[in-house]
Every structure is written in C-alpha cells, then in structure tokens.
Amino acid sequence: MTYFKTVVLGTALALASFGPTLAEESTVRVAQVPALTWAAWMGLPDQATSGGKDIKFEMSGFRSSGDVLLAVQTGQIDIGPTAFNVLASAYATTNALPLRMVAGLGDGTTAVVLKPGSDVKTFEDLRNKRVGLVRGSNEYFKFQIALASAGLDLHKDMELTTLSGPPDQILALQRGDLDAIVTYAPFSTMAVNVGGILADEINEVLVREAGVPSVIIANADFLARDPEGAQAAIDAYVANWRAYEADPELWVDTYLKTASGDRDLMIEAVKDMPIQWEMKDRAMVRVAGNLAAFKVIPADTGEALTELIEYSFLEKATGLSAEELGKGVEGK
After folding, report:
1. 326 found inside a domain
2. H helices of 176-310, where?
3. Do strands 25-32 and 53-61 pair parallel, antiparallel, or not at all (unpaired)?
4. Does any domain span residue 126?
C-alpha cells in the first residue's frame, strides 16, 4: 500500500509539473499594417500575461486591410487590423466568415491628394483623370463609394492605376505620372510635403459618404483556443491608447519605430484625434448599406455582420459596457 501511494503521488507531481507548463504559455500571431491611426495596435509589446498565462506576440507585417482579412480568415494569422468595408465586401460574397470583431481601431484619415499645380476641385473634375490606388485597401473601397455618390464609376470614368503601397503612390504623383492619389495619414502629409495638394471639397464628400470604421479582427478558432492570448492583446492595445491620449509624442514615436514621416507634423495631427476603440454597430450597418447601394458589394448584409461583433474582450480591457463601447449607437 505504501509503495502504491508513493507511485501515485510521484506520478501526480510529475503531471502537475509537466501539464501547467504547457498550458501557461502561448504564442499569438499578430498582423501589423503601418498607419498613424493604428499606432496603438502597432505598439503591442513582445510579450504579456493574461489569466496566469505568459503570452508571446509574434508580429507579421502586411501591406493592406485585404491581406490581413485573408490571413485571419484562413488561420495564418490569429488577430490583426482591417477595415470594415473590406470585411463587408468579403461577407457579402461568402455569407460566412470564421472570425470576430473584437475592438474598434478608428475611422482613419483617408484623403485625395492632387498633383502639384492641379486645378481639380470636385469629383466631376476627376473624370478621365489618372488616379492611383492600392488595390484591396481601405482607401480603394472608400473612394469607390464616394465616387458612386457623385454619379461616377472608378473603372469607367477615370484611368485607374494600382500600386503596391503609399510610397509608390507618392513617387508617381511627384513624377507627374498620376493626377491624384487616395491615401491616408501620414502618407497624405508626405505627399503634400513634396508638392501635392489636398482636395478639400472632394475630401469633405469622401468623409461624409464613405467614412468607415476600422476594426481588430480575430480568428474564431483562435478565440476559442486561446482567449487569454486575445485578452492580453486587447489589454495592451487599450493601455497604449490611454498612454497616447496623455502623450501624443509617444503615439508618433511608436509609429516611427517601423515607419517614416515628419515627426513634428504628425504630433500636431494626433493631438486632436480621440481614442478610437469603439465598435458602433449602427455605423457598420450604414456602411454596409452604402456599399450595397453603390454596388461595391453584391448585397446589404450589415445586420448579419453585426453578429460578428464580440464586445467582451474590450469590455474587460476598458471597464466599459457594450453600450458605452458602441452597441446600438447611431452615427459614424
């Protein structure tokens, strides 16, 4: 009997020391896309702790929202940023996506920048002009919606050039190869710094008709498998937003670790930008409706898409309720 108890106790101790070691560590595969308004996500630490588990964040860089969506959808990436309009387009085609929206990321700073010396004022003035966009990007879809609201078609009414990223857009604009580009901060600022002109009237319409939320999406299997990893990522994200609200220079310096730009100009720009972690489901419904109305996507599935919103991680990280975080909130 003594021998049996000794063997059982020894086995139990061995299992106890072996099992938790495996359970208390995990690696979260994180997508990153350089964007000034996404700096709080860009600033995730290398590792964190949540629910007694040590979490390692493995970062991978992507060029666009569309690339991130595909990677999260297929399980190559666990969690990352994308634009809601890109999400709505994919959902309208598949009617099912194996992911959840777990935090808001901000509406971005999409802007049309014209070549030096341009006399373009309105969307109609862009007819037959050479426009440069990054295919699959948030800006690509926003611009389509805004054009449609003005009675124009991107593919029929202007000469479209697709480029690999914002730096290529700026270079083409500077060389005179394009009449206009559609990009976002701080690349819009960079374009202006080399002679580009902000299209103020066009950009007012762009914001009004196609201002869309961006979100952090997570693979559904990942959330079921490692909720602590997801919570650690959102906790760190929220902590960054709070730190940046108090210190705009920290916001910009985080962005500049992996990107470039005029630091002083960016610091001035972010001073007036609020925390943007909300997920306003009614705004998402509006955006999906606009996408469908202007035939950017084949069907309006906005209400169904809101079923993919998971507020619990953001509620825990912020201490706010789902309603305070945008559930049922009208507006942009």
Report:
1. no
2. 187-193, 200-210, 220-225, 227-246, 248-256, 263-270, 281-293, 302-305
3. parallel
4. yes
In a domain, 323, yes or no: no
Please say whether the beta carbons of 83 and 216 come within 8 A.
Answer: no
pLDDT in tens, 57-99: 999 999 889 999 999 999 999 999 998 888 998 999 888 899 9
Instruction: Match 């001035």 to its residue by tokens.
Output: 268
124 occurs within a structural domain: yes
The span from the CA of 56 to the CA of 318, in Å, is 22
Query: What range does the domain containing 121 cover?
Result: 111-210
The number of folded domains in the chain is 2
Using a 10 angstrom Cβ sphere, with 0-12 exposed, 13-18 middle and 19 or more buried, the burial of residue 254 is buried
3-state DSSP helix/strand/coil percent for the chain, to nearest 5?
A: 50, 20, 30
Asked if residues 105 and 280 have their Cβ atoms less than 8 Å apart, the reply is no
Sign of CA dihedral 275, 225, 55, 10: positive
CA 214 to chain centre: 5
Give residue 141's identity as a one-letter amino acid code: F
Distance, CA of 47 to CA of 293 (rounded, Å):
44
List CB contacts of 214: < 8 A, sequence separation 6 or more: 37, 38, 65, 81, 82, 83, 84, 104, 105, 106, 107, 108, 138
Which pairing describes strands 214-219 and 53-61: parallel, antiparallel, or unpaired?
Answer: unpaired
> What sign for the dihedral angle of Cα 80, 84, 89, 95?
positive
Tens of pLDDT, residues 31-60: 999 888 899 999 999 999 998 999 999 999
Q: How far apart are CA 289 and CA 284, in angstroms?
A: 9
